[in-house]
## 1
Amino acid sequence: MKVPIICLLQLLLILVVVKKTTQRTDIYMKGNLTCVSHWTPKWCARIVLVEKDTLESGTDKIAEFGVVCSKIPWIEYEMKGFQDGDGFYDIFYEMSAVITHSCSGRDLIWKQEHKLNLIPVSKTNVTLVEHFAMSEAFRAKTFFDD
């Protein structure tokens, strides 16, 4: 039995409406980025908080901080953003911190990604305190390779 195209379109519309009527989650994140490289007199960093959908393609940028440079071994960061629900039948936010930095002795830019704890979509306010040590994980061309 074939399903009429109009029924499929109605179902698609219902799925879109259900996804868009979920509540907003305000997200606040702060912490330190630490460069333990003894041979780096000045280093720079940028951190982006993203949410990756498991079933849908794409990544949502929630908040970003930087590019900020420092002559001391740490940078304090603070950022705010929000999410308006997640994918269909997805009850958790799958968030990651994507960091690009120049903490090395070779004037190179590095990129690292840290998966964060799952956050229930039902929460309306989330505060995250996350501290990261810089590492030479993957080479990046610019600070904006997120």
Note: The chain has one domain: 24-140.
## 2
Amino acid sequence: MRPDRFLNHLSAVASAVAGVTRAEPVPDGGRGKRPYLLEIEAGGKTTRWQVVAVSAPGDRYDQDEREPVLGPVPQPPVPAPAAVGSPEQVEAALITALLGADPGEIASVEAYSIRATPGAVPHGATLTFHDSSKIFLNYTR
């Protein structure tokens, strides 16, 4: 999964989440600092989500993207509330929506807000795909 395709998919999926009133990629996303950035409005609050990718082995971004590798879709790691504005709620809603719309590309998901030991990024997810690529979906301020 490449970051540009994921950002477009995330925007479409997020737009259909209950409680989301706007989900749009940020034009140029602060291209120097955060080239793949999505703003989501829910519950009168705006959250920003950065997309960072690790490519599949042998994948080169200067070439056409390969056909997706499909497999079983994992279960959401957290229950999905309506996205009513807090980063935790938006995180859970996005993960559930992404898994619900996944044709089988996602192999696993780690939700950051439920980690036993919190990391530097408190909200978001690591999505690992069946082709071994990864997307880091990071909540940013």
Note: Helices lie at 3-15, 87-101.
